[in-house]
Design brief:
The protein is α/β, with parallel strands linked by helices and about 200 residues long. It has a single domain, classed as Maf protein, CATH 3.90.950. Helix content is about 30%, strand content about 25%. Strand 1, helix 1 and strand 2 form a beta-alpha-beta unit. The radius of gyration is 17 Å and the shape is globular. About 40% of the residues are buried. The model has no long low-confidence stretch (mean pLDDT about 90).
Amino acid sequence: MRLVLATHNAGKAPEIAALLDGNYEIVTAGELNLPEPAETESTFAGNAMLKARHAAALSGLVALADDSGLSVAALDGAPGIFSARWAGPQKDFAAAIAKVEQRLEDSRSEDRSAWFTSALAVAWPGDDGAPGPCVVVEGRVDGDLVFPPRGDRGFGYDPIFIPRGRDLTYGEMERADKEADSHRTRAFARLKAALID
């Protein structure tokens, strides 16, 4: 089955492909030159649904979308749904990480607790312009932030996030170790339960 992955983020594609166990032929929205929709929703789940429905409508394929991000307790949950936007149009996550660190210093809080959220949405193409069915689930992993960043694996905010109960940042972990219990892995388990089990 051919599946369009509703992302232009090159880092997400191999991680999601691995979680799908090679069971689908995956093409990304970027590879299809689909325009990115404006993420106008106020939640991860809302934005995932918006992106999946947009890609399904434009491609005519079943679409899978992920909306994920880092939320920091001392920053009232920021950057949250704006995690990618903090990296700017160039997707400069080193700058985004520096922004998180600066905001934490400005807050004068000692609290370094944070969490990653992944919302996954699967949308089917609709008929006659109406949206098709859509299923949305979420996964979350709690942890703590560390500065300076550690590790050059993963992507995004991975080098500053240590999941609870672990000693390494996501940026230091081998992909298999991260995927064993990441926010995206938890979301995929829920998605499988919703769609198959």
